[in-house]
Amino acid sequence: MSDYFVLTAVLVEGSRLAAVQTAASRIIRAYFSSGELRSREVGSNVARGLRILGDLATLDLRHYSQVIDKSAVFTDSGLRFKNTFLTKVCSSWDLDIVDDKQHPALHTLLEKSRE
Fold first, then answer.
1. For residue 111, is it within any domain?
2. What is the domain range of residue 11?
3. Domain total for the chain?
4. Which side of the chain, N or C, has fewer Cβ within a 10 Å radius?
5. pTM of the full predicted structure?
């Protein structure tokens, strides 16, 4: 188990969404037999991880990531529960990402990880 929460939002221009999804699916199928990108399937194989990241880096997208040290989350607060924690962090991301006056047509699609 990791000592950190790693949360990432993938940002894709709407007109490019279908093309990016198709290209990402090809990359994922090339590396993951389940058809789903899972970090545990990469494990400690750094070379494989770098090849995957290199292929993903060719996609026409941007990302917004946040890494949070689990030990910094108050153990006596509701944030120690995964769903509460994710709800709170994602709602703050809405303010940072979606409520941007420069991008009034930005839409959010949320896909929750099963981990």
1. no
2. 4-98
3. 1
4. N
5. 0.65
